[in-house]
TrEMBL record:
PROSITE patterns: ZINC_FINGER_C2H2_1, ZINC_FINGER_C2H2_2. The keyword Zinc-finger applies. Residues 7-35 form the C2H2-type domain. Keywords: Metal-binding, Zinc, Zinc-finger. One of its GO terms (molecular function) is zinc ion binding. This is C2H2-type domain-containing protein. The lineage of its organism: Eukaryota, Fungi, Fungi incertae sedis, Mucoromycota, Glomeromycotina. It comes from Rhizophagus irregularis.
Length: 190
């Protein structure tokens, strides 16, 4: 992002003298932008490919769920290579999906019981958000809502580019931020 011609808002075509000014402009004018100017270049992933990444996500999030005290709190993990088109097709129609063209970065949040229900639909798996210890009835789970508050699960996709020997190498990475809790349930809880 150093050449003069590239410092231009991809959404309204306003030109800027510095990348930092474009970032400020984007934050002020297009904070909730959903338009992806290069959407045509993102092929629709096959369902096999999509499920490969959904399954990876479920395996990794369950590894973050536990039954002890230190299993409670803010958690995060990344899938170090995650295709952009898979991320876009999973989340592009969601209410809290947004895209920053200047940063080439996407974000999508889910909140509360409504968010939890929506994620069950997207992942096509009702049990994605918890792990149960069958001997103690203790459950480790992703916290999205309790009697006091709503909490978020946030998905972020960003890209790293390496330029070397006249070649560009790009790496797409997905990061997920969420909050976990652990509790003993008296009744069998679904
Ligand atoms: Zn603009």
């Amino acid at each position: 992002m150093t050449s003069q011609s590239s410092i231009c808002c991809k959404l309204c075509f306003k030109a800027f003298t510095a990348y930092q000014k474009l970032l400020v402009h984007e934050r002020n004018k297009h904070l909730y932008n959903k338009t992806i100017p290069h959407f045509y270049s993102l092929p629709q992933p096959s369902s096999e490919q999509t499920f490969y990444y959904i399954n990876s996500f479920i395996v990794l999030i369950k590894k973050k769920l536990g039954f002890s005290r230190h299993a409670v709190g803010k958690k995060r993990f990344s899938i170090e290579t995650f295709p952009e088109n898979v991320f876009v097709y999973l989340f592009k129609n969601e209410e809290k999906f947004k895209y920053s063209p200047a940063k080439h970065k996407y974000q999508c949040c889910f909140e509360g019981f409504a968010g939890a229900a929506r994620l069950k639909e997207i992942f096509r798996y009702d049990h994605w958000s918890f792990r149960q210890n069958l001997f103690t009835n203790t459950k480790g789970y992703v916290l999205l809502e309790d009697y006091e508050n709503k909490y978020q699960v946030k998905f972020i996709w960003g890209q790293t580019t390496l330029s070397e020997n006249d070649r560009e190498f790009t790496l797409g990475k997905m990061t997920c931020n969420f909050i976990t809790d652990s509790r003993e349930f008296q009744e069998k809880y679904v």
